[in-house]
Amino acid sequence: MGKTILLTYFDLWLSEQVSNSSDDLLLELSKMTPLPDNLIFLHRLPVNSELASSQVIAKINFCQPDYIICCGMAACREYLSVEVIASNSGILTANSIDDNCTTLQTSVDMDKLLQGTKSVEISYDCGKFVCEQLYYLVLDYLRQSQLPIKCVFVHVPRLNDQNLPMILEDFLLIIHNLTLL
Protein backbone atom coordinates (compact mmCIF):
# COMPACT_ATOMS: atom_id res chain seq x y z
CA MET A 1 0.00 0.00 0.00
CA GLY A 2 1.20 3.53 -0.81
CA LYS A 3 1.49 6.42 1.55
CA THR A 4 -1.83 7.46 3.05
CA ILE A 5 -3.38 10.88 2.60
CA LEU A 6 -6.07 12.28 4.86
CA LEU A 7 -8.36 14.67 2.96
CA THR A 8 -10.65 16.94 4.99
CA TYR A 9 -13.32 19.44 4.06
CA PHE A 10 -16.02 21.48 5.74
CA ASP A 11 -19.77 21.24 5.80
CA LEU A 12 -21.99 24.01 4.42
CA TRP A 13 -22.16 27.03 6.68
CA LEU A 14 -24.76 29.32 5.14
CA SER A 15 -28.43 28.38 4.86
CA GLU A 16 -28.57 29.46 1.21
CA GLN A 17 -25.55 27.32 0.21
CA VAL A 18 -26.34 24.32 -1.92
CA SER A 19 -22.76 23.10 -2.12
CA ASN A 20 -19.22 23.66 -0.94
CA SER A 21 -16.58 23.70 -3.69
CA SER A 22 -14.10 21.63 -1.67
CA ASP A 23 -16.80 18.99 -1.15
CA ASP A 24 -17.66 19.18 -4.87
CA LEU A 25 -14.01 18.76 -5.88
CA LEU A 26 -13.48 15.71 -3.69
CA LEU A 27 -16.75 14.22 -4.96
CA GLU A 28 -15.44 14.62 -8.52
CA LEU A 29 -12.19 13.01 -7.44
CA SER A 30 -14.06 10.00 -6.10
CA LYS A 31 -15.98 9.61 -9.39
CA MET A 32 -12.88 9.41 -11.57
CA THR A 33 -11.89 5.84 -10.80
CA PRO A 34 -12.36 3.54 -7.87
CA LEU A 35 -10.72 5.31 -4.97
CA PRO A 36 -7.19 4.21 -4.16
CA ASP A 37 -6.87 2.65 -0.73
CA ASN A 38 -4.47 5.35 0.34
CA LEU A 39 -7.03 8.21 0.33
CA ILE A 40 -8.93 8.70 3.58
CA PHE A 41 -11.77 11.22 3.61
CA LEU A 42 -12.98 13.13 6.64
CA HIS A 43 -16.29 14.44 5.35
CA ARG A 44 -18.14 17.60 6.23
CA LEU A 45 -16.26 18.91 9.23
CA PRO A 46 -18.31 21.23 11.43
CA VAL A 47 -17.70 24.91 10.74
CA ASN A 48 -16.26 25.35 14.22
CA SER A 49 -12.50 25.30 14.74
CA GLU A 50 -12.56 23.45 18.07
CA LEU A 51 -14.91 20.72 16.88
CA ALA A 52 -13.27 20.41 13.47
CA SER A 53 -9.73 20.22 14.85
CA SER A 54 -10.82 17.64 17.44
CA GLN A 55 -12.22 15.45 14.68
CA VAL A 56 -9.12 15.84 12.49
CA ILE A 57 -6.76 15.11 15.40
CA ALA A 58 -8.78 12.02 16.35
CA LYS A 59 -8.59 10.82 12.73
CA ILE A 60 -4.83 11.50 12.64
CA ASN A 61 -4.35 9.42 15.79
CA PHE A 62 -6.55 6.62 14.46
CA CYS A 63 -5.29 6.43 10.85
CA GLN A 64 -1.73 7.74 11.24
CA PRO A 65 -1.64 9.19 7.71
CA ASP A 66 1.58 10.18 5.99
CA TYR A 67 0.05 13.40 4.64
CA ILE A 68 -2.90 15.67 5.29
CA ILE A 69 -4.65 17.93 2.80
CA CYS A 70 -7.22 20.13 4.48
CA CYS A 71 -9.59 21.76 2.03
CA GLY A 72 -11.86 24.75 2.25
CA MET A 73 -13.93 26.91 -0.03
CA ALA A 74 -12.68 30.29 -1.20
CA ALA A 75 -15.47 31.63 -3.37
CA CYS A 76 -13.63 34.83 -4.27
CA ARG A 77 -10.53 33.07 -5.59
CA GLU A 78 -10.03 31.97 -9.17
CA TYR A 79 -7.55 29.10 -8.77
CA LEU A 80 -6.60 26.50 -6.22
CA SER A 81 -4.65 28.25 -3.47
CA VAL A 82 -2.15 26.33 -1.38
CA GLU A 83 -1.67 28.00 1.98
CA VAL A 84 1.85 28.34 3.36
CA ILE A 85 1.11 29.78 6.80
CA ALA A 86 -1.58 29.97 9.45
CA SER A 87 -1.75 32.07 12.58
CA ASN A 88 -3.64 31.66 15.81
CA SER A 89 -5.04 35.19 15.77
CA GLY A 90 -8.71 34.95 16.56
CA ILE A 91 -8.62 31.38 17.87
CA LEU A 92 -10.59 31.06 21.06
CA THR A 93 -8.76 29.20 23.79
CA ALA A 94 -10.35 28.62 27.19
CA ASN A 95 -13.12 31.11 26.36
CA SER A 96 -10.74 33.92 25.45
CA ILE A 97 -8.82 35.03 22.40
CA ASP A 98 -5.15 34.00 22.43
CA ASP A 99 -3.15 37.21 22.96
CA ASN A 100 0.14 35.68 21.80
CA CYS A 101 -0.17 35.63 18.02
CA THR A 102 1.91 32.83 16.55
CA THR A 103 2.34 31.89 12.92
CA LEU A 104 3.12 28.37 11.79
CA GLN A 105 4.34 27.32 8.37
CA THR A 106 3.85 24.07 6.54
CA SER A 107 6.97 21.93 6.13
CA VAL A 108 5.96 21.09 2.56
CA ASP A 109 8.29 22.36 -0.18
CA MET A 110 5.92 24.44 -2.35
CA ASP A 111 8.11 24.31 -5.45
CA LYS A 112 8.10 20.52 -5.41
CA LEU A 113 4.44 20.30 -4.45
CA LEU A 114 3.28 22.51 -7.29
CA GLN A 115 5.63 21.18 -9.95
CA GLY A 116 3.71 20.73 -13.20
CA THR A 117 0.52 22.44 -12.03
CA LYS A 118 -1.00 24.98 -14.39
CA SER A 119 -3.23 27.23 -12.34
CA VAL A 120 -2.38 27.01 -8.67
CA GLU A 121 -1.34 29.94 -6.55
CA ILE A 122 0.71 30.01 -3.38
CA SER A 123 -1.06 31.98 -0.67
CA TYR A 124 0.09 33.53 2.57
CA ASP A 125 -3.44 34.54 3.56
CA CYS A 126 -5.52 31.64 4.80
CA GLY A 127 -8.28 34.04 5.82
CA LYS A 128 -9.50 34.76 9.30
CA PHE A 129 -12.24 32.18 9.39
CA VAL A 130 -12.40 28.53 10.38
CA CYS A 131 -10.00 27.52 7.56
CA GLU A 132 -7.03 29.30 9.10
CA GLN A 133 -8.00 28.21 12.58
CA LEU A 134 -8.18 24.54 11.58
CA TYR A 135 -4.91 24.74 9.66
CA TYR A 136 -3.14 26.36 12.60
CA LEU A 137 -4.50 23.88 15.14
CA VAL A 138 -3.53 20.87 13.00
CA LEU A 139 -0.03 22.24 12.29
CA ASP A 140 0.38 23.01 15.99
CA TYR A 141 -0.75 19.52 16.98
CA LEU A 142 1.70 17.92 14.52
CA ARG A 143 4.51 20.16 15.83
CA GLN A 144 3.81 19.53 19.51
CA SER A 145 3.39 15.79 18.97
CA GLN A 146 6.55 15.71 16.84
CA LEU A 147 4.74 13.75 14.14
CA PRO A 148 6.48 13.61 10.74
CA ILE A 149 3.17 14.12 8.90
CA LYS A 150 3.22 16.76 6.17
CA CYS A 151 0.15 18.99 6.02
CA VAL A 152 -1.14 21.60 3.59
CA PHE A 153 -4.34 23.55 3.28
CA VAL A 154 -5.89 24.01 -0.16
CA HIS A 155 -8.55 26.61 -0.85
CA VAL A 156 -10.87 25.65 -3.68
CA PRO A 157 -12.62 28.33 -5.78
CA ARG A 158 -16.19 28.03 -6.99
CA LEU A 159 -16.35 25.27 -9.56
CA ASN A 160 -18.06 25.38 -12.93
CA ASP A 161 -17.96 23.40 -16.17
CA GLN A 162 -15.10 25.55 -17.50
CA ASN A 163 -12.67 25.43 -14.56
CA LEU A 164 -13.44 22.00 -13.08
CA PRO A 165 -11.24 19.90 -15.43
CA MET A 166 -8.18 22.11 -14.86
CA ILE A 167 -8.71 22.35 -11.10
CA LEU A 168 -9.24 18.61 -10.78
CA GLU A 169 -6.11 17.92 -12.83
CA ASP A 170 -4.04 20.29 -10.67
CA PHE A 171 -5.46 18.81 -7.45
CA LEU A 172 -4.57 15.30 -8.60
CA LEU A 173 -1.06 16.51 -9.38
CA ILE A 174 -0.78 18.04 -5.91
CA ILE A 175 -1.79 14.68 -4.40
CA HIS A 176 0.75 12.86 -6.56
CA ASN A 177 3.55 15.35 -5.84
CA LEU A 178 2.86 15.25 -2.11
CA THR A 179 3.45 11.51 -2.02
CA LEU A 180 6.86 12.04 -3.64
CA LEU A 181 8.10 14.41 -0.93
Quick one: biggest sheet?
Answer: 6 strands, mixed
Give the CATH architecture: 3-Layer(aba) Sandwich
Count of DSSP-assigned helices: 5
Output mean pLDDT.
89
Helix content: 25-40%
Structural class: alpha/beta
Widest sheet: strand ordering:
2-1-3-10-4-9
| Stretches with pLDDT under 50, minimum 5 residues | none
CATH superfamily: Peptidase C15, pyroglutamyl peptidase I-like
Order of helices and strands: EHEHEEEEEEHEHEH
Strand content: 15-25%
Alpha carbon gyration radius: 15 Å
Structure characteristics:
alpha/beta; 10 strands; globular; Aminopeptidase; 35% helix
Description:
The chain is α/β, with parallel strands linked by helices and 181 residues long. The protein has one domain: 3-Layer(aba) Sandwich (Aminopeptidase), CATH 3.40.630. Helices cover 35% and strands 25% of the residues. The chain contains five helices and ten strands; from the N terminus they run E-H-E-H-E-E-E-E-E-E-H-E-H-E-H. The chain has helices at residues 21-32, 49-63, 110-113, 130-144, 164-180, and strands at 5-10, 39-45, 67-73, 80-83, 85-87, 92-93, 96-97, 103-105, 120-123, 150-156. The strands form three sheets. It has a six-stranded mixed beta sheet, with helices on both faces. Helix 2 packs parallel to helix 4 (130-144). The chain is globular, with a radius of gyration of 15 Å. The mean pLDDT is 89.
